[in-house]
Amino acid sequence: MELQLLLVVSAALFGIGVYGALSQQTFVMIMMGIELMLNGAMLAGVALWGVSGAGAPKGQLLIVIILTVMAVEAALGFALVIGIFRTRQADMTEMLDELQG
Amino acid sequence: MNWSAPLPGVVLVGTVLVAGAYVASVLDAGAARLVAGRPLRVGELVAGPWREAALLARIRRSTTERPDAQTWALAPALLAAMAGVAVATVPLAPGVAVADVDDGIVLFGAAMAVVMVGAFLHGWSSNSVFPLVGGYRFVALALSYEMPLALVLIAAALPAQSLSVGAIVESQQGLWNVVRQPLGLPLFLVAGMGLAFWGPLGMSDGADLAGGTGVEASGPDRLAWALARHFVLVAVAVMGAAVFLGGWQGPGLPGALWMAIKTLVLLAVVVGVGHRVARIRLERFVVVAWAVLIPLALVDVFASGALAL
Amino acid sequence: MTDAALVADVAIWLFGGGSVVAAWLVFRTDSMVRAAYWLLASFVAVGMVMVLLQARFLGLVLVLMMAGEMTIMAAFMVMFMMNPAGLNPMSMVHQHTTAKVAGVVAFAGLAFVGLVAEFPDRPVDPASEPTAELGEELLGDSMLIFETAGVTLLATMIGAIAIAGKRGRFGNAQEGSAPPPVDPDAPAGPDAHPSPMHGGHGGHGGMHH
Predict the structure, then answer these.
(1) Domains and CATH numbers, chain A
(2) Which of B66, B109, B132 sits opposite C87 (nearest CB)?
(3) Could you tell me the maximum CA-CA distance found in chain B, to the nearest angstrom?
(4) Contact at CB, B68 and C67, closer than 8 angstroms
(5) What is the pLDDT of residues B171-191, one digit of tens each?
(6) Neighbours of C142 (CB within 10 A)
(7) Which residues on B lie below 8 Å from C56 (Cβ)?
(8) Is residue B18 part of a domain?
(9) Is residue B42 predicted with pLDDT exceeding 60?
(10) Is residue B192 in some structural domain?
(11) Engineering a disulfide at B25: which of B49, B94, B215, B309 sits with its beta carbon 3.0 to 4.6 angstroms away?
(12) Rounded mean pLDDT of A15-27?
């Protein structure tokens, strides 16, 4: 029962993340949506590892990989936000609707 | 620790923090007098912190235009709580630790990362320019010294083969880490000064910013912020005493007394440096942190690893 | 059930529920800094669930990492946004209906799988040492994976610096930079905007697609 409820919680986190990533206009808010999806994935991973996976070390390794993905996503996301702001002074998706330049 | 009765643990941590903060501010006032060549008046020094606290508590609160009042109130609470978490992981005497968890120094690192959140919130929430600049300064500093801080703690964990603070203290039987890893304690204290924005790293609340993140706080708010900052300093000193100075170990005297003496020594060092070393410019420190302190911390880790093999 | 186990269970529910509430508030608050720190609250709650499920090291590392990352996010928000403090109510969303539907579908699908699928009941042995096991795994059998993650992070660092640096690949990255036209009919280019820095920001508050 505990596992099912934790998986529902992680699904809720993922769903809110999907909503945020698709609906937000600001780049950083979109990144927040993506981070929430990863958060949900991580919770599901830990729940399965802790309640159903008998604590296999490979399960923790998967979480480490998700943490790495988060770090990469954040670093590249911020780099792109800065890069776009330098060249186009844009901080929202709608400001990048033309291909020229 | 007995989790169903948390009161003794809370009281113990609170006593350590309050006593440490009091001693630190007495030392600070004393050092200021020494540096200025004025006579030390012990009576005045001992009563000083109480008088200041009583004065601040009676001053009227001020506020700004549309502050974020909740996060403003949260900021000192975050700092104080994280200082408490840090102290809780440290054994204060043989077998007397509130929560000597097996990932103690990771918990300490996480708590100190949350201190950064608190300081930024304190700068941002008053909706005023100088505090915001102060908050930015804290973040720029913190991102620079967090890496050396994490590395020297990892180096200290290597000989203990454990991340628990208790095990690190035990591992220093006979040889303290301050001797075994001479780079560790100085780097740790640099980071600690940054965390408590003290002395040469007191940029976020510096006088050049008219008081930085604390500009808009007055009365009880200012008192809370000053207390929280002292608590963080005490937490750093307690952790430094345990991880680098052998904790409660020492000949003759009881363990708790050794721990208190070592904490006091570290507090005195930090306070003394604060009065003898000028404030460093932010961008200069950031360059030094990344180009000098991180390589030094890496040397510390490699050397400790080689020794531990 | 012992007292300690009961406390742990209740705490897991509180933190689990709290993580969802905090995640929801990320997109409901008007203040950018608050949004970043609600997200941090969500991460901290998940980190605490991890700690309670015995993945102590990873849970604490998550808190450590996210406290830094969310502070950077908050700093970015204050730097780039026209309304960081949340003084005015705002809603900066597009394709709102699609996004809501996608979010609900994702939640429903995943929750359905989570509820229907059968998983064996094999909890972590409380006497085990997950941190030590993780260390053995990272520097033992899975060392290649760990190293790959490390090299990926190194490549990310170099790439991020290359993208974000002021010295762009083709000279100064800011040269000729101009805000894009907010009004689709207005001409682009530096002449169209008397004050190029943040010139267009005032008009975005009501943008609502």
Answers:
(1) 2-94 (1.10.287.3510)
(2) B66
(3) 60
(4) no
(5) 888 888 888 888 999 999 999
(6) 20
(7) 101-103
(8) yes
(9) yes
(10) yes
(11) B49
(12) 90
CB contact under 8 A, A13 and C179: no
| Neighbour tally for C127: CB within 10 Å | 5
Number of domain units in chain B: 1
DSSP state, residue A49: I
Q: HSE (CB half, 13 Å, CA atoms) of A78?
A: 21
Chain B: give the shortest CA distance to residue C60, in Å: 6
Q: Taking a C-beta distance cutoff of 8 angstroms, is the pair C190, C196 a contact?
A: yes
**pLDDT of amino acid C176:** 64
Q: Are C26 and A36 in contact (CB under 8 A)?
A: yes
B87-96, B97-106, B172-181, B206-215, range with the lowest pLDDT: B206-215
Which residue in the set C4, C40, C56 is minimally distant from B117, CB to CB? C40
A30 CB near a chain C CB, below 8 Å? Answer: no
A16–C197 CB contact, under 8 Å: no
Query: Is the predicted pLDDT of residue B108 greater than 50, yes or no?
Result: yes
Looking at the domain assignment, is residue B2 inside a domain? no
In chain A, what residues touch C10 (CB-CB under 8 Å)? none
Q: List, for residues B109-128, the tens digit of each pLDDT value.
A: 999 999 999 999 998 888 88
Query: C60, B106: Cβ pair inside 8 Å?
Result: yes
Q: What is the mean pLDDT of the segment spanning B144-172? A: 91
What range does the domain containing B111 cover?
A: 7-308
Q: Where are the domains of chain C?
A: 1-84, 129-172
Minimal C-alpha gap between B3 and chain C (Å): 8
User: Can you read off the two tokens belonging to residue B136?
Assistant: 């930015």
C75 touches B136 (CB < 8 A): yes
